[in-house]
Design goal:
Belongs to the class-V pyridoxal-phosphate-dependent aminotransferase family. The chain is α/β, with parallel strands linked by helices and about 350 residues long. The chain has two domains: about 5-10 and about 260-360, Aspartate Aminotransferase, domain 1 (Alpha-Beta Complex), CATH 3.90.1150.10; about 15-255, Type I PLP-dependent aspartate aminotransferase-like (Major domain) (Aspartate Aminotransferase, domain 2, 3-Layer(aba) Sandwich). The chain is built from twelve helices and 14 strands. The chain has helices at about 15-25, 35-50, 65-75, 90-100, 115-125, 150-155, 205-210, 225-230, 240-260, 260-280, 310-320, 345-360, and strands at about 5-10, 55-60, 80-85, 105-110, 130-135, 140, 145, 160-165, 185-190, 200-205, 285, 295-300, 320-325, 335-340. Helix 2 packs across helix 9. The longest helix is centred in the last third of the chain and has 21 residues, at about 260-280. The protein is globular, with a radius of gyration of 20 Å. The protein starts with 5 loop residues before the first strand and ends with a helix.
């Protein structure tokens, strides 16, 4: 369908009509049997998406709230953690961990690059007190897809936890919570899950659940123990975003019926198509190494250094109702990040290309 405003952004993305219809239904009560049934259905479907035998908790929060919840539940003040930092959201995990008094080390990489496995191995060999590794699966500020599985191989037989920000990485890329030895994965509704912002998801390994017992950081709303206890009763500990969870049930049914693998393939093909179309009109690809390009967005840089990115995105948004994201950080005036989530297809990319050519 054509939306009034087309979002070529890395989240939120346009919500498909059937899910919008589900979101518009009358509100139900979260302590009643109909909600309990939906929560049971949703939890089972989330486990299928995460590829885990563990329960997946639902928080009423943005993805950043879920990131904070992973820190306060799994660590204690003074714990040493390593952040594999490949962009803006690596910076965010550093900031959250420092706020709560953790000892934070960082392996920082140039934007557009992934991490060095050799450097991570060396750091762990030199720092045997590391309690956790925090990393971003798909770095939304750069479009880089970081290999989570390789880090899981390093931590699987140790007491070190692997915490992954999968907020933009889920659904449109392969993800195997159990097989990749992930200890905590956080995601949220407004990316690959085809929903508006407002809820987030957390899965925790048995190893991480044991570490919860020693955590001494303050928490009330984020206390995972409350969520586990109430989940056994088919309820949330606090009033949730009820309609978003009703919509989530519909969205997950669509995702699982279509197949996550099929979605991965379609988005990879669309990403490649978008890259080629933007190269045709005078843009270069920000990420040189194709093997680390994600399927959430296509980051491009104009060859014409005089092109005003801010003006371009403003005209697209206000004249044509096409919202395209600028870069972040040092690239805010130098980069376009073309989101390809939700129902965006090749025709939509062609339309966007035509509008950009008309402007520039």
């Amino acid at each position: 369908m054509k939306h009034k405003k087309q979002l070529f952004t890395p989240g939120p993305s346009n919500v498909p009509d059937p899910i919008l219809e589900e979101l518009s239904k009358d509100v139900i009560h979260h302590r009643m049997g109909d909600y309990k049934k939906i929560l049971e259905d949703v939890t089972g479907k989330l486990k299928s998406v995460f590829k885990t035998s563990e329960d997946v908790l639902i928080l009423t929060s943005s993805g950043t709230g879920a990131m904070e919840s992973s820190i306060v539940n799994l660590f204690s003040k003074g714990d040493h953690v390593l952040v594999i930092n490949t962009g803006n959201f690596g910076d965010r995990y550093i900031e959250i961990a420092e706020v709560f008094g953790l000892k934070v080390s960082s392996l920082k990489y140039e934007w557009g690059n992934t991490y060095s496995l050799a450097e991570v191995k060396q750091f762990l060999a030199d720092n045997t007190d590391v309690k956790g590794i925090l990393m971003t699966y798909h770095e939304t500020s750069t479009g880089v897809l970081n290999d989570v599985k390789r880090i899981g191989e390093l931590t699987k037989d140790t007491d070190t936890l692997l915490i992954t920000d999968c907020i933009s990485g889920m659904i449109v890329h392969p993800f195997e919570f159990d097989q990749w030895n992930v200890d905590c994965a956080v995601a949220s509704s407004q990316k690959g899950f085809l929903l508006p912002p407002g809820i987030s998801f957390v899965s925790i390994s048995k190893k991480a659940q044991k570490q919860m017992e020693r955590s001494n950081l303050p928490k009330y709303y984020w206390d995972y123990k409350k969520y586990y206890d109430y989940l056994k009763k088919g309820q949330p500990p606090f009033t949730p975003a009820i309609q978003l969870i009703v919509g989530l049930n519909k969205a997950l049914t669509y995702i699982l019926e279509k197949g996550v693998t099929t979605i991965n393939t379609e988005k990879q093909e669309l990403r490649t198509y978008t890259e080629e179309r933007f190269k045709e009109i005078g843009f270069t690809l920000f990420i040189e190494d194709e093997s680390i390009r994600g399927n959430v967005l296509v980051p491009v840089v104009p060859t014409n250094k005089d092109l005003d990115i801010k003006k371009l995105t403003k005209i697209l948004d206000e004249t044509y109702d096409l919202s395209v994201s600028k870069g972040q950080g040092q690239y805010v005036t130098k980069m376009l990040r073309i989101g390809i989530l939700s129902e965006i297809g090749k025709d939509d990319i062609d339309d966007l290309i035509g509008k950009i050519k008309a402007i520039v």
